[in-house]
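Hello K.,

You asked for the raw outputs rather than the summary table, so here they are, unedited. I folded two proteins back to back in the same session to keep the settings identical. This is the first:
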Amino acid sequence: EMRDRYGRNRFGQACLLARQLTEAGVPFVSIHFNEMTICDGWDTHSKNFEALQTELLPYVDQGLSALIDDLTERGRFDETLVACYGEFGRTPKINANAGRDHWGDCSTTFLAGGGIRGGVVYGESDRHAAYPKADAVNPVDVQATIYHCLGISPETMLFDQVRRPSPITLGQPIQAVLA
């Protein structure tokens, strides 16, 4: 029943496993979502709409919502940060293969739980979803926000083998989304 709740697909089962691993004391779990039948995960250079409708969005909707509900029911949501994002967005224009290509100028990040204020939508794109229109966020700011939620100061310095300092991030936490 629990496996069905998360979805009988690789993403849903990975979300269930992630919840189980965190309960077992694993402090950080990452899910790589990229083995699909219609497309190469979110790399929808072709068949974008078919992939979104039949696999990608249903799997994410079921698996991610089950994870959040399950964490909430178990009293672990407020101490568990859930982050869902890719390394870039997709082109606002559809290509000749009914797909969308890589687009670094505008993308989406989902954060919930551990240290994130619920119900907040931050940032806005133009009407084509091509460029940020308001409250643009740099990826290093997302990184700094995640570090902040994990209790790691974004001002932390790392040192290489010859003691040269390097900042853990160049970003700043996004205050508007923090609880």
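The second followed immediately with the same parameters:
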Amino acid sequence: MNSIEQLQPAEIWKYFLEICKIPRPSKKEERIAKYLMDFAKEHNLEANQDAAGNVVIKKSATKGYENLQSVVLQSHLDMVCEKNSDNNHDFINDPIIPYIDGEWVKAKGTTLGADDGIGIASQLAILASKAIIHGPIECLFTIDEETGLTGAFEMKPGFFDSKILINLDSEDEGELFIGCAGGIDSVATFAYEQEKVPTDFIALKVTVKGLKGGHSGDDIDKGLGNSIKIITRFLWKGTNKYDLRLSLIDGGNLRNAIPREAYAIFTVHKDDKDSLMKDFNTFKTYVTNEIKDIEHNVTIILENCETPEFVIDEPTHFDLLNSLYACPHGVISMSRQLKGLVETSTNLASVKFIQDNQIIVTTSQRSSVESLKNDISNMVESVFRLANANVQHSEGYPGWAPNTNSEILNITESAYNKLFGVKPVVRAIHAGLECGLFLEKYPYLDMISFGPTIKGAHSPDERLDIKTTQKYWELLLDVLTKIPKKG
């Protein structure tokens, strides 16, 4: 098959294609929300939108299943907007262009938005169907999950009524999730002074690109390259050997994505260029060999460029590079309760020069233990405070503590085993789901999360597995028929 319209289950792929046509960056979900409200009106379904922008659509039970408890199916409306640097895609106005590549659905040089477009599509397919069997259903669509969990934070108690919630935002078919990490962002701000480029200095540009990138929670243990860490390593070594002066460094985009690309413009005395080039070639060989087993397409380039208008003052230059080099990135600890689960991690996500002579460094921390989440954010803060930066933390969000006695877990686990002849893996995920916030407002909720296999989320390599989408759909429909009866 070379047409997405021919894929099965047809109901899901139909709506997934429609969703791809609607731009939906985080904090700009108005068009997709309007689409949902119009969809509800077209299908004579009750729908409400709260002040935050979240949408809930309700559907009555199939005849004969009115005695089942109500269940809420939940996804988020926004998508991570990442693209390759040579791609001119406009996420505000342009549709996503999906295509089939073997066993996967991908997008042309951008994130696909299967996270969480496939969840939205499955909800719409159920809401539109007259044949699918289910009890009373509420479909909840939240906004701004990817950049702040704003929808879940601002949702008021009583927006939905169900006591069972199925989150459709997981990315590993065959695995049932009953817990997730909490998270917090730590942002460091440097103020710098502009200085003239020294006499007899030449300008060079170093670039790192071609890294895979990935989800800063789910992929943090994969050993993926971090473009900011790589480029800082070169600049730090160069600074300590030559009179290297930094003019600009730019890398990463999103707090919840491992940075794939970075570049820096700096100056060095013309007499040091040849020696620096030799050091660069050695550095490039080292780095390429260190990550070759996972990063097959990394490109590291050092080239001439136009002389910049200024270099940053020397104290800030040293403070910035020392702190970026020292800033922890990656896994901090593994869980002692759940084998293979990352317990605590941190992601050096982006560095940007902004107006008013300021440099912003964004990091994100995650942990399934609240005290350790705060500890690693304090550790990151201490690194940047030593470098004279101002550090602020986001409000953060709570984790979701696993409940192995969950009734919806037992139902879903049994359904999976009967459908596919194997037991699913039951685990927690080192990524942020909205479930922890829901639990704060609806403490009685019984929750589970599952989905099809998505690889490369939060990067242009994002891809959705076709076969597991079918299995995910079969499981979801089967579980809906087995929801407990009203007490």
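The mean pLDDT is 96.

Happy to rerun anything if the numbers look odd on your end.

Regards,
P.
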